[in-house]
Amino acid sequence: MEMALEGKSAVVTGAAMGIGKAIAEILLQNGAKVALLDVNEAAGKSLSEVFAKQYGRERTLFLNCDVESEEQIKAAFQKTADTFGGIDVLCNNAGILNEKLWEKSVSVNLVGVIRGTYLALEHMSKLSGGRGGVVINTASLAGLGPLPSCPVYTATKHGVVGFTRAMAAASTASGYGIRFNALCPGFVQTDLFTAIKTNLGQFSHMTDATEQLVKKFGVINVSDVAGAVLEMVTDETKNGEACFVSPTEKTYVNFPKFNQ
User: Fold this and answer.
1) Which terminus of the chain has a smaller tally of CB atoms within 10 A, N or C?
2) pLDDT at 231
3) How far apart are CA 164 and CA 8, in angstroms?
4) What is the rounded CA–CA span in Å between residue 32 and residue 116?
5) Are 12 and 34 in contact (CB under 8 A)?
6) For residue 259, what pLDDT is reported?
């Protein structure tokens, strides 16, 4: 079964740049209406203008939103629902990599994803009058295995993968009508990637180890990542999946059977 995106309403956090921008664009290209949420107001507004010209002003909306703020996310979701008539797709994509600011990393990368998901349930869950839909959480290669120079980033992304899989099972058991999948790209050519070295804090002596991993896994562009998102959104058989994307492959991780 394939979910058609024509006329559907989507929310993307961290949408102003990088992976978020590519996700927003591929959803627009496939007919969705997209709310761009980001803390970077200047970049968000200018991107929204570009998208408005390309895809129609009525199909895009920029909302200044910090995923660390319950009030701001709540307001942004309400505004999206009011403008587009509900929410069908949520991409919890906002994230940072900064081992110096480890508490903020946990707050943005993990707490932000949980908060965004729970607030979106109020709009999307069939149990609360929603239409159901899909939630895609941006994790990382570091959600599947350790990135030694980034223990906290690794922990947050493992957390995102675990939370996503548990929510998928909970949704199936409870009848939310929502599918949950995790995106696990390797190294992606973004500002986050180029700034890794400057954000390692007490692990800055491990730059070489990081470079070895980059050599091993290669670097992908954001459009490849967006393609994987499109597949997880539209393919209705995908629920509780973690999709690893590298320059050579796109694979769904085969986790050990846990409680079947």
Assistant:
1) C
2) 97
3) 22
4) 20
5) yes
6) 63
Q: Mean pLDDT for the chain?
A: 96
- Give the closest residue to 12 by CA, choosing from 22, 20, 4: 20
| Catalytic residue IDs | 153
Contact 152, 202 (CB under 8 A): no
Query: How much is the CA Rg of the chain, to the nearest whole Å?
Result: 17
- List of the chain residues with pLDDT < 70: 259-260
116 within 8 A of 93, measured Cβ to Cβ: no
d(CA 173, CA 139) in angstroms, rounded, equals 24
- Give the bridge partners for 13, in sequence order: 37
* Tokens describing residue 7: 């006329």
Q: What is the pLDDT of residue 3?
A: 87
